[in-house]
Backbone:
């Protein structure tokens, strides 16, 4: 059976970006969240981002309108069940993800493939708590989803070949490129990216450089589109810390210990762009370093 109808759980930054690209690729999308205002905000941002693509000549107005018409929003998780593919993009907490898959279980079709957009949690463990570990995979999008080319494909230990091939096909239809990772903590991108960001925070913590110097050095010195601290604010400092903790716990190596300064920012509620403050303050016209 092919994949035509896709259920997306969680309408935050990632879930809305994922809904955006599936709808533009012609899939029917059911986008679910537990908060009404999150769904409203998601539709506003999808529309604004599609408008941006129309303005740049990347998407026609007719395709944008058709794609927007293919997205249905709901507060009811049960409506995500009768789909061909589920993409879970809720908060990066294992208990939340587990509860979603548990609640979804009775409403799924026998052929429905389950995926999680987790950036670091074990796919094998999430899969083992469902009734279909052979039809379960990691489908990890990068932020901002409409722009970033890569999707990581992560097989759990029980994932069957047919599920893997189907998802390879889905990524291709989305116009994106996949890289396959084994199911180890944080997979490929975050295994490499997060220690770099964490090291940038240590560089700040130890006074080797200030915020502007660190970001400028990496942007202009290594041709990264954003400096590591700017990127950390973009991803969310809570997410960065959560991923460092998964690496630290999962690989039991002190080289992954989160920088105390990163922990402190998260404790302060300075989570980056989404809260208006992180390594930079986003309250004015231009971001200004907070230390
Ligand atoms: N939706 C649609 N289009 C968007 C968009 C969005 N949300 N955000 C940006 N764009 C488009 C713009 O319209 C623009 O299009 P054109 O090329 O046609 O002009 C293009 O993207 C570039 O955008 P801007 O000119 O506004 O800004 P920029 O040149 O500074 O690029 C950026 C912005 C693409 C975000 C760039 O800074 C970048 O690539 N940053 C690094 C992002 C990154 O590393 N992401 C991965 C994070 S790790 C992750 O996601 C994994 C995890 O689990 C944590």
Residues:
């Amino acid at each position: 059976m092919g994949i035509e109808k896709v259920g997306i759980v969680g309408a935050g930054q990632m879930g809305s970006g994922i809904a955006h690209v599936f709808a533009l690729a012609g899939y029917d999308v059911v986008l679910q969240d537990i908060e009404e205002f999150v769904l409203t905000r998601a539709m506003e941002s999808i529309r604004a981002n599609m408008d941006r693509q129309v303005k740049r000549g990347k998407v026609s107005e007719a395709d944008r309108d058709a794609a927007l018409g293919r997205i249905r929003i709901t507060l009811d998780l049960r409506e995500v069940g009768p789909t061909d593919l589920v993409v879970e993009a809720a908060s990066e907490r294992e208990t939340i993800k587990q509860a979603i898959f548990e609640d979804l279980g009775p409403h799924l079709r026998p052929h429905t493939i389950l995926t999680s957009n987790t950036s670091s949690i074990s796919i094998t463990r999430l899969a083992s708590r469902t009734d279909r570990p052979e039809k379960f995979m990691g489908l990890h999008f990068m932020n901002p989803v409409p722009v970033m080319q890569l999707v990581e494909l992560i097989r759990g230990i029980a994932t069957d070949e047919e599920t893997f091939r189907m998802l390879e096909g889905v990524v291709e239809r989305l116009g994106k490129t996949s890289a396959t990772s084994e199911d180890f903590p944080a997979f490929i991108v975050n295994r490499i990216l997060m220690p770099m960001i964490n090291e940038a925070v240590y560089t700040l913590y130890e006074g080797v450089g200030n915020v502007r110097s660190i970001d400028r050095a990496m942007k202009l010195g290594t041709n990264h589109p954003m400096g590591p601290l700017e990127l950390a604010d973009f991803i969310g400092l809570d997410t960065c810390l959560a991923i460092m903790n998964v690496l630290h716990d999962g690989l039991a190596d002190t080289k992954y210990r989160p920088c105390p300064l990163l922990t402190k920012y998260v404790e302060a509620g300075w989570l980056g762009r989404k809260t208006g403050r992180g390594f930079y303050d986003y309250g004015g016209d231009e971001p200004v370093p907070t230390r």
Remarks:
- The radius of gyration is 19 Å.
- The chain has two domains: 5-181, 191-283.
- Residues 220 and 227 are 9 Å apart (CA to CA).
- The first strand starts at residue 5 and ends at 9.
